[in-house]
Design goal:
single chain; 169 residues; alpha/beta; 6 helices; 4 strands; 15% strand; globular
């Protein structure tokens, strides 16, 4: 797997690439949204979470782009303002940055995932009263039917997140 070729919509460590991806997502949401929720995995989870944090930093709209967010195996987030302005990559953490994501969120990751600590960190950046966490026995993957407890636990967590979003409307 280490020698595999990967393709990505954007590169997280390149300012112009990340800025363009976030701007593209903003434009899409402005045209097609707002949405009830977003379901995202890995690189996509990074982008969705980055969008929500950037939206929080900008202020302005009282209506978030999504009523809830589901992040599966989300890598670490960093201070996007510092990155865009100075090229500095500073990992966000709840102690110094609080909970910039206020909507109901679901966080799913595998205990054997190489980014499981990063996923945990992202979950802590979300409002804890509406954050649901499920850790399965797998690795960096979307839970599937071959691991019935993995799939059932994920569905239960997702249902809880969607229910919380509906109750807050």
């Amino acid at each position: 797997m280490d020698n595999a070729t990967y393709y990505a919509y954007f590169v997280t460590e390149i300012k112009d690439s990340l800025r363009q991806a976030l701007d593209d997502l903003d434009a899409y949401i402005a045209e097609e949204g707002p949405f009830d929720g977003v379901l995202s995995f890995s690189h996509g989870a990074f982008l969705a979470a980055a969008h929500l944090i950037r939206q929080s930093e900008k202020g302005g709209s009282d209506t978030p782009s999504f009523k809830c967010a589901i992040f599966i195996a989300c890598p670490d987030l960093y201070d996007f303002s510092a990155f865009m302005e100075r090229g500095e990559i500073r990992r966000l953490n709840a102690k110094s940055d609080g909970h910039p994501i206020q909507i109901p969120t679901v966080h799913i990751w595998g205990e054997n995932d190489g980014v499981h600590e990063e996923s945990r960190n992202v979950s802590e950046l979300c409002e804890e009263s509406v954050a649901t966490v499920f850790v399965h026995e797998g690795s960096h993957e979307v839970p599937k039917s071959s691991g019935k407890s993995m799939l059932a636990g994920s569905v239960k967590a997702i249902r809880r997140g969607i229910t919380l979003a509906a109750l807050l409307e």
